[in-house]
Amino acid sequence: MKKLSILSAAVLILTISASTTPAEETEWKKGGPKYLYVKPTKKPPHHGVYDEGMKCLDCHKYDGVDAYTSATMTVKKTKKGRAPRAEVEEAIKNTLKGLGDFREIFILSTSFNDKPLATVIEFVMDPKTFTFYAMSEKQTEKLFHIAKNPNVSLGYVKQRENYDYFEGALGVQIVGKAQQIKGTDPEFDAAAAIYIPTLPLPKPSGPIPQPPGVELLTEMIRPSKIITKIIPERIVILDRKFKEKGYHAVQIWEKEKK
Ligand code: HEC
Fold first, then answer.
1. Is the pLDDT at 95 greater than 90, yes or no?
2. Model-level pTM?
3. In ligand 1, which atom is closest to the CA atom of 248?
4. Residue 196's closest CA among 178, 222, 170, 173?
5. Ligand 1 contacts CB of residue 71 (under 6 A)
6. Which of 65, 203, 209, 211 ranks highest by number of CB atoms within 10 Å?
7. Which of 38, 79, 248, 251 to mutate to test the pocket of ligand 1 (most atoms within 8 A of CB)?
């Protein structure tokens, strides 16, 4: 009998500790630490526009929708200040057009067991679908990250020419899912056909009268490379030019739900 009650006491203790949530987790359920939020006491003159009738606290508090309410995402709450989707897409294409080939250098963020990794890498964007393609040597660190966790983020920034960071600020942040395409996958050729033509190839010279064609190059890379395809879920663009039209400098593009 005594043994049994000790056992049941132990079970009770175990049950209690399993049902109490750690303090940290409760805090995050409420949107994280309070000091991260703007105290809306006085609206600064440079404050972005928003719809008639909105209250300060419509944006400047945790609203229980997401894990958090970030400044960027509050912009979705107002119609005023938001550019039409077509204008946002145009701005994204203009920003990431490269030399007209949509090839640009990005920072790719991946994570493995909650440890992040930022990699400098070229991607080519398909301007029709806003899908991104990169080609990597096998066995590189980022590929292991993606194989474990397909959630990735890409960052692009227009580097400064003068001290025009703020006036001419221009950057893009992408959040999406990555897929790995191997040489034996049926999609490899189609992806290579988007990626390869924009590669800066050496000029034909001497014994090689012509640069190798896309098909020959595809065969050359098939065994040794992995193509990473990123399908964006959300693209955020910061472009000061939007302000000139009365929009927010930050605009959000989201994948259309089917
Ligand atoms: C539609 C959403 C929205 C509403 C409504 C709103 N704000 Fe904001 N507010 C923002 C965003 C977005 C920022 C930018 C955060 C940042 O600085 O990155 C911001 C920034 C601020 C800042 C910090 C600015 C700075 O430069 O440090 C203050 C202060 C502020 N708001 C006060 C107010 C007050 C007061 C009201 C109500 C009268 C209000 N806001 C209403 C979205 C909103």
1. yes
2. 0.84
3. 12
4. 222
5. yes
6. 211
7. 38
